[in-house]
Structure formats: C-alpha cells, structure tokens
Design goal:
alpha+beta; S16 Ribosomal Protein, Chain: A; 6 helices; 7 strands; 26% strand
Length: 160
C-alpha cells in the first residue's frame, strides 16, 4: 500500500519536511517513489506538486493525517481536517500512567476532572463511624477467607 507522508529533512532545531509517496512499510526517511512537495513548518509555507498528488491519490495512495490537513489548508484537497494528536515527549510517560484508559484495544484520553467526578460518585456520601473492635473482627474474617498464615507456617508447608 502506498502512503503520502512527511519525510523529515533539515538541520537540528530547523525542521523541514518533504512530502513523499512511498510504501507504507518503509521508514519515512527511507527509500521513496516520488517527491511530491516540501513544507516548512516555521514559516507555514510549502511547495506542492498538485497534479502528482492527485494522481497518486486516484491510484489508491493513502494520505497521512498531517499531510491531509496541510493539503486541505492549501486548497489542494476539499474536505474537513482530521484530528491529529500531538503529545510532548516529556509528558508521554506521565500520560500513559495517569491520563489514559484502554478501551477495547484503543487508548482513550481522560480528563482529571472526569476522574475526580467518577471517584466522588463511587464513594458513599456519608462515612459511618466504625468501632475498633468491629474493624479487628473484619480483618480476622478476611485473613481466614484468604488463608493467610504466619511466615513460619508457610516455610513448613513449602518444605513438605
């Protein structure tokens, strides 16, 4: 399957992109079939080969979301822009742990406000006071159910 996507070129901290047609399995900076244009994100200007882009799209090439949005903005393609999620590299680890839920194989972003509301709904509104004796009895019942034993007893069981 052919893909029309960005290939990064340029110096460090001075990014420029080529818009290329290539096989979807190759790396973006790898071998390409044809260069279809270029884009400078610093000046928001680009040079596009409109006829070649339309040719590849008619022949079944898929367009990446970022390239699609730029082509819509330039008027080469008509349609609505697609949603592109860009995450900062510094926050990636934190978001994976805190702000994402996995739903049917897809990750879904959740807002901290939503999590607070859900946790408040799950908690009972009024907390009942519990006596210490009752708490100890409950703990003992739980230990019996779980089958928790002392470490010495566990070692003896393992040796048997």
């Amino acid at each position: 399957m052919l893909v029309i996507r960005f290939s990064r070129v340029g110096k460090k901290n001075r990014t420029q992109f080529r818009i290329v047609a290539q096989e979807h399995t190759t790396t973006p900076s790898g071998k390409h079939i044809e260069i279809l244009g270029s884009y400078d994100p610093h000046f928001k200007k680009g040079v596009f080969k409109q006829e070649r882009i339309e040719y590849w799209m008619k022949n079944g090439a898929q367009v990446s979301d970022s390239v699609y949005n730029i082509l819509v903005k330039q008027g080469i393609i008509k349609g609505k822009k697609r949603f592109v999620k860009i995450t900062a590299k510094k926050d990636e680890g934190k978001k994976d742990e805190e702000g994402r839920k996995e739903v049917e194989g897809k990750t879904e972003e959740t807002k901290p406000e939503d999590e607070k509301e859900k946790s408040e709904e799950a908690k009972p509104e009024e907390k009942e006071e519990v006596k210490e004796g009752e708490v100890k009895e409950e703990k003992e019942e739980v230990k019996e159910k779980v089958g928790e034993t002392k470490p010495e007893e566990r070692k003896a069981e393992v040796k048997k």
